[in-house]
Amino acid sequence: MPPAGRPLITSEFDQLFTTAKTERKAQIAERDRLYDERTKLLQAHYAGAVPLDLLKTEQDRIARQVAFLDSRIEASEIEYDQARAHLDDCLALAGNAHAIYMSIDDSLRRIANQAFFERLTVTDDDAIDAEPGVPFDTLFNPEVQATALARQERGGNGADQTGNVAGLNNDALVPPAGLEPATYGLEGRCSIH
Hints:
Layout lengths: L4 H42 L5 H24 L4 H16 L1 H7 L2 H11 E6 L5 E5 L3 H4 L2 H13 L15 H4 L6 H11 L3
Antiparallel strand pairs: 1-2
Helix pairs in contact: 1-2, 1-3, 1-7, 3-9
């Protein structure tokens, strides 16, 4: 990946992480509101204003909502530094893929192939068709690279109009639940240790 792509991707990552932090704060506030509602409901029951069957139904509803929010909050607690380090590892690998591949022995080339590619197919005429794996399918995408270069030439850092870039819009990169799916994919394939 050309150096121009790094600012585009890291800027998009930072923007998505900021959105996820805002979402997490809203989820915590909603969970706290439900805790207050549960306490008030119990106090109303003790005062004789809420019958036992309604108390049970409402407490069950609140418990389900709190459990759902707790799972979303827990899933969003990925540390920015750790996720960013994995992204930086992937970008470093993508930027030096050929040099890395040529500098390692055959036993490590198999591991490199598994990290970079979803599928490698040798055709009858000994040509190799390669299908990059996640996240390299986006990093090696010529359309993404062309957009990154165009933005660099315009002086942009990636914070503008990412919706028209394949794989770099908010819907495709990170679902509303937060960063966990994306970082899992990066963590499993890109760690350099």
